[in-house]
Design brief:
The structure is a single chain. By secondary structure, the protein is of the alpha+beta class. Helix content is 24%, strand content 46%. The chain is built from eight helices and 22 strands. The protein has helices spanning 2-9, 21-30, 51-63, 76-82, 87-103, 120-129, 143-153, 331-346; strands spanning 11-17, 36-41, 44-50, 67-74, 109-113, 158-166, 169-176, 190-193, 198-207, 209-210, 217-218, 223-226, 228-230, 236-238, 242-258, 260-277, 280-283, 293-304, 307-327, 351-361, 365-377, 380-383. It has a five-stranded antiparallel beta sheet with strand order 11-9-15-21-20. It has a four-stranded antiparallel beta sheet with strand order 2-3-1-4. Strands 10-12-8-22 form a four-stranded antiparallel beta sheet, with no helix packed on it. The radius of gyration is 40 Å and the shape is elongated.
Length: 389
Amino acid sequence: MFELFRLLFGYVRFCARGGFSERFVNLCDLQKIKVRSLAFNEDRLEGFVTARDYKKLRPVAKKSGMKLSCLSKHGLPFFVFRNRNRVGLAIGAGFFAVFMCIMSLFIWSVDTVGSEKLSREEILSVAKNYGLCEGAFIPKIDVHELADSMITEMSGKLLWVAVNISGCRAVVEVRDYIEKPESRTYGEPCNIVADFDGLLLSLQVINGTKANHEGNGVKKGDLLISGIVENRDLSCVFREARGKITAFHKDEHSFFSPAQEKRRVYQNEDSVSFLRIFSLKIPLGFFKRGGTFEEHEIERRLCLKNIPLPFAFGKSVRLYYNLESADSPCVLEQSIDGYTAEAFEKYANTRVLKTKISLSKTKDGVLVRSENECIDFMGEKQKLLIETG
């Protein structure tokens, strides 16, 4: 702040030679002239004072028998005096000051903190629906109403939202919703039935009535655990069947990779620069041709001491291409890689005991097929239909 005030009011660096330096210092103190960074170098005194106090130094130097000279002048008053005949510079400075005052009424950047489940883009897209985005008019933003609206829309995802605006920067602080532990109360009455053909290895009933036994072969849709529970007084109640069931079964999986594939053959490239002010994109040119293309943007945000400004320069690049059929040079490797990726996802929670893999190659492509012997969890819920009357 001290440096800012010095530049605002102007200061002069001086030197004084000869005479009596002690008397010069004492007279400055007596006249209440504040001399900063006073130092004695060889045969002279050096320091700096404000532009107003420099005029008072001449009579002090004369009484002390010293010769006063100016080394340099700094600050706004001297800059204005040197450029007093440049009207355009003054108009530009005034326009810049008015422009910055107007720009300070808008949001320059929006950030998010606190969420581990939701991405920054998801939170900002919801905030934008309620008026918080780059370029938003700050006086019209009600941060409390905005936070309440975001919580209402993202119910079940966000527990708490607060919007803080500091200067031209807005920060959306959020806390992720913490789901309640699973309730132990029973859900809707249902049975558990087989969801594939297999041989039962284990059947553990948690809730309900056991309707099948280990070692039995079952088909898809067969009843495993009934949701009808009989009491000691022979009355029946309907419950949500629960249990842990494992079964042995055989399963097949295949993956086909075509011998020909559609490829993009790139032909031309075109680019156009653009200027972005807040969310407004202003192109600085036009693309010359149409056709099928993929477009990429390279953008550089302007910053001032790590503070993002509402201006950015960038370039839009269009890559034009045609789709052409071509023979796949690595069809065998592609089919094996594709089969491996799908099989890994499909059998992630399955114990595979034995696998038999076969490859068949034709002019159309390569087929990878496997026969697997597996131990897997079995069972899906089937709602009970209760008739009353």
